[in-house]
Structures are given as structure tokens and as C-alpha cells.
Amino acid sequence: MLMSPVEFFRQLPKKVCPECGQHMEEQAESYLMECDRCLSKRDE
Description:
The chain is mainly α. The protein is built from two helices and no strands. The relative contact order is 0.17.
């Protein structure tokens, strides 16, 4: 039996920053891989 799309997306693992390992808050239409803290460090 097929899983409902809603259940599929609920079961996906949380997005994790590859630099520091912090869990990131998902945002629609966001393709960023690093968290805000790591991105701000990169700009300095």
C-alpha cells in the first residue's frame, strides 16, 4: 500500500548543518545547506 504524501514528509529526517551539526529550521523555497550562524561566519 502506498504511503500518503503527508506521512512521507513527516517521516523525513530533520535538516542538519554539515558545518556544525546543528538542526536547521526548514523553510519553504530555501536551498541553503548551512545554518545562519555558519553562513554569517563565512561572510566575515
